[in-house]
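Lecture 7 notes: from sequence to structure.

We start with a single chain of 339 residues. Read the sequence below before looking at the structure.
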Amino acid sequence: MPTIKKKQTILTWIGGLTSFCVIVVAGTVAAAQTPSPALLVVNKRDSTLAIVDPRSGKVVGRVPTGDTPHEVAVSADGRLAFAANYGDQTPGNSISVIDLTTQKELHRVDLGPLRRPHGMVVVDGELYFTAEENKVIARYDASSNKVDWLLGTGQNRTHMLLFSKDRSTIFTANVDSDSISAIQHTLGRADWRETVIPVGKGPEGMDLSPDGKELWVAHSDEGSFSIINVDTRKVMQTVSVQTQHSNRLKFTPDGKLVLISDYGAGDLLILDAKTHREVKRIKVGGGPAGILIVPDGSRAYVADTEGDSLVAIDLQTQEMTGRVFPGGNPDGMAWVPGR
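Now the structure, written as tokens:
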């Protein structure tokens, strides 16, 4: 049995039509079998990956990672997790590869001169990530345990990364260059062609509309977001939403709503994707950051980093339904589908 160092907290967790009583214990968690589906969360202050049962809201295991992980991704078969060890005062240069069955770190990938790994996504079985200090995108092949590809952006603080629907284009948010890079794979002499798209101050959170036609980008240093036409690579509209420090932006799977976490104000902002108008602001707590929306679109999780918790939001009622306490300063999340 684990040693309990802090007092127990009782939380009512509402999932679907059933209410559960969850006992949340701050301290060591005895590992249980990884659930299916599962919610993964990286904790920056604790340098851990937490494995959460989304049905009960209970943390079933925690796995040590490298220093201060910010983002996490999952392999296509749901067996491996990858944590980007961003580092704190000293820039990080590693990725933790974690076996979700045994709940153990298999190995820690030494990235050598690549610093501040971030913005991770798995495509065609390989892990793509940004190396913020180097202004590059890199690719890690888990089967060979090697970084086998690099591409420079030439932009400052290349932070977040995502792929177009047809996987022909990589988009990066370049926070300190106030730009988005659209990097398209070509069949000519150059393998990739970059288009730099100027946007507002401090672009960080971004997401593609479900139809793949629009890229929405939240500006962390001004209270607005930009809407980019994916085909023309041009900003169609910039919309003011009066956020203090926008951190992440996510579409719901049906494309009807957009969620923006406002780290500065402590709010989650819900927008109507068609009208661009505010639907609701939900007070999350201190420093809302990472957002994950479950695949069926019924629920969202928002990381309250300063509150050491995740807030669960019912997207039908647009109300908070509970909190999960995964560890210190939670941020990036990933979903492991059911088998």
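Residues 1-29 have pLDDT under 50 and may be disordered. Keep this in mind for problem set 3.
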